[in-house]
Structure formats: structure tokens, C-alpha cells
């Protein structure tokens, strides 16, 4: 059976990703230069997070491109799932950078360094503006894709980071307390870690073909069992091909005298019409028929 192309959540928001990638890339370059010129670890920490934004958005766009490739005999579902390892790689990189920031903050606590607070404050404010724009661009799309969710969390965390950098710059400018820079840097690193861990667990869940969080498998089973002509439901599996593209396979036992074609249609309409499921595979069985090797 040939499958029609199903557009992924990321694919529906390609233009949003492109705009956000352009803004983020431009600011990342600005922040790296400013961090080096000012000697601010907080700016460099924020630049590290911006780098993961750039990488995450780039990976998401690459995943969209790959997902649009047609299915082949070797990959009958196409390349939808490529965005999931991309999201997982993005999470791993972000965790690594957060750990680096925490280590550097520790070193700065031991050996404080002077920071050019004026330029640091200006650049942090510019970062807040850029991140606010990216948040606005990605917010409505974040629930449709793990890559988009990862990108959204990253720009959200960068906005918080920018506020923290501004606070650190103001404190150092007004009081000369140099520990504000590594303190804010450490807070940025700690703020990112739990959100990144959640993204990683979501990606692993898809790779392990767990039931998508937005689908209640008990409700699916009950809805199919309630269809007129269905005597029993078994071998029910729901999994995600990629973010926003869920699939179901199910065996239904038909009652005597029911038209198989009509039953197939009603089960498919139930799955796609009432639940977030895009692809349906149904096996209809006559009463008393058993399928060897199946799962109850």
C-alpha cells in the first residue's frame, strides 16, 4: 500500500523556523564578539545557548527537508522520524554547554575577572528583543513538533538569560560586585537543565515507540469497541512516526453479518476524527478467528 504524504508539525511551520533562525544567527555572532570584548562569562554563556538555538533550528529545517523525501521500499514511512534524533542531539549539546557554563562559573568565583558592563548591558537588551521576537514567532507552533518545542524552550530560556545578564551588568555597574557575572551564568545553566532533560525524554519516548502523550489509549480502545459491528478489540498499538504524526494499528473482531468494508471505514474515521491520529491500519477478523503470534 502506498502512503500519501503527511506533513509533519515542523513542516507546517517552515517559514517560522526560517525567520527565527535568521534572527538567532545574527544575534549569536553579535553576542560572541561582545562577550569576548567585554570579558563577560554571562554573555558567553548566553551565546552558547544561542548556538544551540541556531543548531536546533538548523536541524529542524534539515529534518523538514528530509521528511519531504518520498517513501522507499527500504523506508516505507519515509524520513519523518529524522527530526527525533535531531531533537535528541540538540538536547545532548545543550546539556553539555550548560555543564561547561557551570564549570566556568565556578572558575570565575575562584578568580573574578573585570567586565565591561556598559556594552554587556546593551548587548543583553538587544538579545532580549531578539529572543522576544523568536518566542512570538515560535510560540503557536511549539506544540506540533519536538524540534519546534526544543527551539521554543531554547529561545525562552535565552530570553530569561538575557534578563539575567542585564541584571548582572546593572549590579556590577552600580556596585562593582564582580561575582554577579558568574552567579547569573550558573543560574542560566541550572535553569536550562531540567527543560532539556524533558525534551530528551520526549525524544527517547518516540524512539522507543511509546504511546504519544496526547493520545489516551484507553479512550481509543473504548471508542473503537463502541462502534456498531465491533465485537472485540485487541492488538491495539499507538505510536508516533514523528512529532504530530501519530499512527495506530488495531485488530477488531466483527460481529456476524457486518460489512467488512463499512467497518473498516468507521474504525478509520473514529481514529482520525476523534483522536490525534494520522495513519490507521486495521485488521478485521471474523468471530472466533485467532491470529497466531499476536499480542493481547
List keywords for this structure.
single chain, 296 residues, mainly alpha, Alpha-lytic protease prodomain-like, Alpha-Beta Plaits, 3-stranded mixed β-sheet, 3 strands, disordered N terminus
Task: Give structural notes.
The chain has 296 residues and is mainly alpha-helical. It has two domains: 11-207, Alpha-lytic protease prodomain-like (Up-down Bundle); 217-285, Alpha-Beta Plaits (2-Layer Sandwich), CATH 3.30.70. It contains eight helices and three strands, in the order αααααααββαβ. A three-stranded mixed sheet has the order 1-2-3, with helices on one face. Helix 1 (14-38) packs antiparallel against helix 2 and helix 2 packs parallel to helix 6 (180-207). Mean pLDDT is 80; it is low at 1-6.
Q: How many structurally independent domains?
A: 2
**SS class:** mainly alpha
CATH architect. name of the largest domain: Up-down Bundle
Query: What would CATH call the class of the largest domain?
Result: Mainly Alpha
Tell me the β content.
5-15%
What is the average of the pLDDT values? 80
- Alpha-carbon Rg, integer: 25 Å
Tally of DSSP helical segments: 8
Distance between the termini: 26 Å
Q: Strands across the major sheet, in which order?
A: 1-2-3
Helix content, binned percent = 55-70%
CATH fold category name of the largest domain: Alpha-lytic protease prodomain-like
Any idea what the CATH superfamily of the largest domain is called? Cation efflux protein transmembrane domain
Main beta sheet strand tally, sense and closure: 3 strands, mixed
- Return residue spans where pLDDT drops below 50 for at least 5 consecutive residues: 1-6
Amino acid at each position: 500500500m502506498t502512503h500519501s504524504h503527511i506533513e509533519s508539525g515542523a513542516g507546517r511551520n517552515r517559514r517560522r523556523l526560517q525567520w527565527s533562525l535568521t534572527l538567532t544567527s545574527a544575534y549569536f555572532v553579535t553576542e560572541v564578539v561582545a562577550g569576548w570584548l567585554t570579558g563577560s562569562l554571562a554573555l558567553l554563556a548566553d551565546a552558547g545557548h544561542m548556538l544551540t538555538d541556531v543548531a536546533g533550528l538548523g536541524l529542524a529545517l534539515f529534518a523538514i527537508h528530509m521528511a519531504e523525501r518520498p517513501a522507499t521500499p527500504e523506508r516505507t514511512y519515509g524520513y519523518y522520524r529524522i527530526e527525533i534524533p535531531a531533537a535528541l542531539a540538540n538536547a545532548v549539546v545543550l546539556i553539555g554547554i550548560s555543564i561547561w557554563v557551570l564549570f566556568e562559573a565556578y572558575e570565575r568565583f575562584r578568580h573574578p575577572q573585570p567586565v565591561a558592563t556598559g556594552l554587556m548591558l546593551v548587548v543583553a537588551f538587544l538579545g532580549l528583543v531578539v529572543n522576544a521576537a523568536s518566542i512570538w514567532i515560535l510560540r503557536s507552533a511549539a506544540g506540533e513538533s519536538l524540534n519546534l518545542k526544543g527551539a521554543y524552550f531554547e529561545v525562552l530560556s535565552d530570553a530569561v538569560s538575557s534578563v539575567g545578564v542585564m541584571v548582572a551588568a546593572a549590579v556590577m555597574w552600580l556596585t562593582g560586585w564582580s561575582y554577579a557575572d558568574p552567579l547569573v551564568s550558573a543560574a542560566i545553566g541550572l535553569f536550562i537543565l531540567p527543560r532539556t532533560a524533558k525534551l530528551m525524554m520526549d525524544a527517547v519516548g518516540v524512539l522507543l515507540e511509546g504511546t504519544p502523550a496526547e493520545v489516551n489509549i484507553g479512550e481509543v480502545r473504548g471508542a473503537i469497541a463502541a462502534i456498531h459491528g465491533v465485537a472485540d478489540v485487541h492488538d491495539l498499538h499507538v505510536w508516533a512516526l514523528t512529532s504530530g504524526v501519530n499512527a495506530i494499528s488495531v485488530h477488531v473482531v466483527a460481529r456476524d453479518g457486518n460489512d467488512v468494508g463499512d467497518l473498516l471505514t468507521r474504525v478509520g474515521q473514529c481514529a482520525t476524527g476523534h483522536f490525534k491520529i494520522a495513519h490507521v491500519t486495521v485488521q478485521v477478523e471474523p468471530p472466533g478467528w485467532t491470529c497466531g503470534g499476536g499480542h493481547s
